[in-house]
Amino acid sequence: xxxxxxxxxxxxxxxxxxxxxxxxxxxxxxxxxxxxxxxxxxxxxxxxxxxxxxxxxxxxxxxxxxxxxxxxxxxxxxxxxxxxxxxxxxxxxxxxxxxxxxxxxxxxxxxxxxxxxxxxxxxxxxxxxxxxxxxxxxxxxxxxxxxxxxxxxxxxxxxxxxxxxxxxxxxxxxxxxxxxxxxxxxxxxxxxxxxxxxxxxxxxxxxxxxxxxxxxxxxxxxxxxxxxxxxxxxxxxxxxxxxxxxxxxxxxxxxxxxxxxxxxxxxxxxxxxxxxxxxxxxxxxxxxxxxxxxxxxxxxxxxxxxx
Length: 307
Prior knowledge:
The structure is a single chain. The protein is of the alpha+beta class. It folds into 3 domains: 3-81, no CATH class; 89-187, GMP Synthetase, Chain A, domain 3 (2-Layer Sandwich); 210-306, Rieske [2Fe-2S] iron-sulphur domain (Rieske Iron-sulfur Protein, 3-layer Sandwich), CATH 2.102.10.10. The chain has helices spanning 3-22, 27-56, 59-70, 73-81, 89-106, 135-150, and strands at residues 109-117, 120-127, 156-160, 186-187, 210-212, 224-229, 232-239, 242-247, 261-263, 266-268, 275-277, 283-284, 297-298, 304-306. The strands form 4 sheets. A 4-stranded mixed beta sheet has the order 1-2-3-4. Strand 6 (224-229) and strand 7 form a beta hairpin. The longest helix has 30 residues, at 27-56. It is elongated. Residues 1-5 and 165-205 have low confidence and may be disordered.
């Protein structure tokens, strides 16, 4: 059994026992058990703080040790619990947004942190991402996953510029974007509180995840490549050196776009002649209220798509 697996089992065991304690019918026994747990956590927290102080005072050697410890998932979790993690929450949120910014910029959009108060980050989607019919998918598939990875102690999000994804988005039965609800701020919890798991505004059959794409799936300069990743039909396009990914389905007629005509950033469907501006999040040309479905793509650490 690996240390990581063992640590995961310990965490599950602690959570299970904590739930059992909270369900004790005997009020006195429940209170004593909760006080004991709090005292043990405080004792270990005090010890961790003293260890961190010694490491910090060791200058360069301590900095190296601290960096190695912070890269360990188990140790990092303990440091976060006791508010001892060496990198501030704001720095980690900014680092998380930096990892997804290349993808968003490739679609003519951006995301900015405009505030952080009481553990709640205030974000603004900009450019093509603001009010885009795929903005909620972008939030769930790219931004939220990056924040979960870099800042699991974040209490919640307030995001401006997010539009609900209309039924049938990305296919021939899409509703016009003008009918989509207006962009409005909303809160999306990132970590569960003692009150229990929050209800997320987006319901999905399975959690989105990053899936690697073989280098053989990468299109050549100025060309397209249709491929299937984890059972999902995708279309990759190289536009002026930027790699973009979309669902392989025309938003006008529903046909696949792998044999489409790509000129500059404009992709023309061979079946219906509808054109889509790929650098502008796949919006249809000529003011048509249609849009392809962007798929988050990252090249850092190997080509990956979020599906």
